[in-house]
């Protein structure tokens, strides 16, 4: 997390924000002061490529040969399976050039492949040298199918047990066994041997997440966790997910980009004090004192000894199957303990927000809505001139959010894609890919903010000039799916998989679809992508009141345009009179106009009623906090839509 360094930066940023708000824009390279280059939370540098990456692959293969390994598996992961990882853990990007948040590579003696899911197919094709790497599916078929085809009997496939879960290792082992090959755990990662300028591990300072935002004391959370351990019948629980540690002990940090995460572990016995394993250099006296009220504090390298001592008594130790490294399970087993893999109970406790967190989320979204209204008004005024670029949009939106005075970080790198770039689901604009926003295109902008009281995530698709009939048809189909989720009423215990079809039905009617889930969970000043609940065909966790999820159907026409409409929603009681069973519904938290110019008349009266009610609420809650010019824009943007 990069913070402004001095008063000059703060003054300069206020000047830039004022100029943006008043319709003045300028090329950053020519006019912006050097200090401002450090002011943004996101950068636009192009990833490395070409000869450097080819040389890295050759050096890596030499290292594998030296270790008598035929191949190696490189996941996009750190030791805790975080979505965003520190620079020191970006092994996949360093070796392949692919910078997406999910992926895996396999290097064999003569073949190599990068595996990505549907969100990153286009991005991988642009970033990876296809002369050295093939690009394959991460999901269907999975990488194990590629291994079965390319491994030979007697091959020795290496892996780092700290970077894979036990379930992932089991899949790799089956593929190796089928081919007559051997899966070999390594003591040290061979990439680290050839990555000579690898960055040092992060040392972001730990901060206390105040009770005014957390809403529950650490001791009370620990009591609930112990109750869950009793249900599981285990003697101890390893918190391998740093998000779980942060939530349990009401701390935040700055070790990874865009998520206030302190990289750490914890070991919680069923009886007695838990232990937190975290680098002491991250802790101020107040932070250490805060932690020591409820736990012992140890260095990270003491985890293995502490876990070994616990396991030596034959203890049953719970591990999160989604984040616990295979190395932990192997250690427990070798010490005589019993690893119990399953779902981390903290994940579900954390996903159900308490009243304080819910109030904070509402406040954060109202605050964010003011910045969004100012940004959307600015885009409508300036973009039709044809002088703005995708990077200009990213910088302006972040500037408006900074002007709230409460922004801690963006919650992920802003996706700002116009024209064909908008069709890349997780597009990240760079100086090389930066495209001018011109009339006739759609601008898809997906962004979010980290505030102490809540995390936001919102996507709007904006017509620049006159949209085509095709654009309006696709947008309307996406909007109708979005409204179907927003208006859904469902029984308590229903899962995201049961709702996912609602978002796709109107696209399916035209033979269309989108290759990502409809919604993901969202944390409270934590990860913008939080489990375990989600709205997708894989969403098997029941949706519970207090969960916050995204509602974001989309459509992407390759080499042409992209459409996505995203609001965050809160699961609440439906309040149906005479209902024979508990029923739930969604409260929409995001407050930003949806572009009425992109809606055609295939929309129904009930959907129009939802849209007009939503826009009336946006006016009611956001308008009082805007300047006069933006009020006029908001009034026009939220006028009632009519089918006539």
Summarize the structure.
Residues 361-573 form the Peptidase M24 domain. The chain is 36% helix and 18% strand.
Please outline the helices and strands.
Elements: H1 7-21, H2 28-31, H3 51-66, E1 71-75, H4 91-96, E2 104-107, E3 112-116, H5 121-127, E4 134-137, H6 143-150, E5 156-159, H7 166-179, E6 182-185, H8 190-194, E7 207-208, H9 211-214, H10 218-232, E8 236-239, H11 242-249, E9 251-252, E10 265-269, E11 275-277, H12 285-292, E12 296-298, H13 303-311, E13 316-320, H14 326-334, E14 338-342, H15 345-351, H16 355-382, H17 390-402, E15 409-410, E16 415-418, E17 442-447, E18 449-451, E19 454-455, E20 458-463, H18 469-486, E21 489-491, H19 496-508, E22 519-521, E23 530-535, E24 548-551, E25 554-557, E26 561-564, E27 567-573, E28 583-588, H20 605-622, H21 628-637
Parallel strand pairs: 1-5, 3-4, 5-6, 8-13, 11-12, 13-14
Antiparallel strand pairs: 1-2, 2-3, 7-9, 8-10, 10-11, 15-18, 16-17, 17-20, 18-19, 21-28, 22-23, 24-27, 25-26, 27-28
Helix pairs in contact: 6-7, 13-14, 16-17, 18-19
Distance between the termini: 50 Å
Poorly predicted runs:
1-38
Number of helices: 21
Describe the global form. globular
- The figure for the number of domains is 4
CATH superfamily of the largest domain: Creatinase/methionine aminopeptidase superfamily
* Total beta strands: 28
- Sheet with the most strands? 6 strands, mixed
CATH architecture of the largest domain: Alpha-Beta Complex
CATH domain fold name of the largest domain: Creatine Amidinohydrolase
The share of residues in extended strands comes to 15-25%
Structural class by SSE content: alpha+beta
Taking all residues together, what is the mean pLDDT? 93
What Rg, in angstroms, do the CA atoms define? 25 Å
- Strand arrangement within the widest β-sheet reads 4-3-2-1-5-6
By CATH reckoning, the class of the largest domain would read: Alpha Beta
Oligomer: single chain
| DSSP helix fraction | 25-40%
């Amino acid at each position: 997390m990069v913070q402004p360094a001095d008063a000059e930066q703060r003054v300069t940023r206020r000047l830039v924000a004022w100029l943006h708000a008043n319709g003045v824009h300028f090329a950053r390279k020519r006019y912006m002061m050097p200090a401002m280059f450090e002011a943004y939370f996101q950068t636009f540098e192009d990833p490395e490529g070409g000869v450097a990456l080819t040389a890295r692959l050759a050096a890596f293969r030499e290292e594998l040969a030296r270790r008598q390994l035929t191949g190696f598996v490189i996941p996009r992961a750190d030791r805790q399976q975080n979505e965003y990882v520190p620079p020191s853990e970006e092994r996949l990007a360093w070796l392949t050039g692919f910078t997406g948040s999910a992926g895996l590579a396999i290097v064999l003696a003569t073949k190599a492949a990068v595996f990505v899911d549907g969100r990153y197919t286009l991005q991988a094709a642009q970033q990876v040298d296809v002369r050295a790497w093939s690009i394959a599916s991460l999901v269907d078929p999975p990488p194990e199918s590629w291994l079965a085809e390319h491994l030979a009997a007697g091959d020795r496939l290496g892996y780092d047990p700290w970077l894979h879960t036990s379930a992932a290792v089991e899949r790799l082992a089956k593929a190796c066994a089928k081919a007559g090959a051997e899966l070999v755990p390594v003591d040290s990662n061979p990439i680290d041997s050839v990555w000579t300028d690898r960055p040092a591990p992060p040392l972001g300072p730990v901060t206390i997440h105040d009770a005014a935002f957390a809403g529950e004391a650490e001791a009370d959370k620990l009591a609930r966790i112990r109750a869950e351990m009793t249900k599981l019948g285990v003697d101890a629980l390893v918190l391998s997910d740093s998000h779980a540690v942060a939530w349990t002990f009401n701390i935040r940090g700055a070790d990874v980009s865009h998520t206030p995460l302190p990289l750490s572990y914890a070991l919680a016995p069923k009886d007695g004090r838990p232990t937190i394993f975290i680098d002491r250099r991250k802790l101020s006296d107040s932070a250490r004192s805060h932690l020591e009220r409820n736990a012992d504090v140890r260095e990270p390298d003491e985890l293995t000894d502490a876990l070994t001592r616990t396991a030596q008594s034959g203890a049953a130790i719970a591990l999160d199957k989604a984040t616990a490294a295979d190395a932990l399970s192997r250690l427990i087993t070798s010490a005589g303990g019993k690893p119990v893999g399953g779902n981390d109970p903290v994940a579900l406790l954390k996903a159900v927000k308490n009243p304080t967190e819910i109030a904070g989320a509402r406040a954060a979204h109202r605050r964010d809505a003011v910045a969004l209204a100012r940004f959307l008004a600015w885009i409508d005024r300036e973009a039709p001139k044809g002088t703005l670029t995708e990077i200009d949009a990213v910088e302006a939106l972040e500037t408006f959010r900074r002007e709230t005075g409460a922004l801690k970080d963006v919650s992920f790198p802003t996706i700002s894609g116009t024209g064909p770039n908008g069709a890349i689901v997780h597009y990240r604009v760079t100086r090389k890919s930066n495209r001018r926003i011109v009339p006739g295109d759609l601008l898809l902008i997906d962004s979010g903010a980290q505030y102490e009281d809540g995390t936001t995530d919102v996507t709007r698709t904006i017509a620049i000039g006159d949209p085509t009939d095709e654009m309006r048809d696709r947008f309307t189909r996406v909007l109708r799916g979005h409204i179907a989720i927003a208006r859904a009423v469902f029984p308590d215990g229903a899962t995201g998989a049961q709702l996912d079809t609602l978002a796709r039905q109107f696209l399916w009617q035209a033979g269309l679809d989108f290759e990502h889930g409809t919604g993901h969970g969202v944390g409270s000043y934590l990860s913008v992508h939080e489990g375990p609940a989600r709205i997708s065909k894989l969403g098997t966790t029941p949706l519970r009141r207090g969960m916050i999820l995204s509602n974001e159907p989309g459509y992407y026409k390759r080499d042409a345009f992209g459409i996505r409409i995203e609001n965050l929603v809160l699961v609440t009681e439906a309040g149906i009179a005479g209902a024979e069973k508990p029923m739930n519904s969604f409260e929409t938290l995001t407050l930003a106009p949806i572009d009425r110019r992109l809606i055609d008349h295939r929309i129904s009266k009930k959907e129009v009623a939802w849209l007009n009610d939503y826009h009336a609420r946006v006016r009611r809650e956001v308008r009082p906090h805007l300047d006069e010019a933006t009020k006029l824009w908001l009034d026009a943007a939220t006028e009632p839509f009519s089918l006539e």
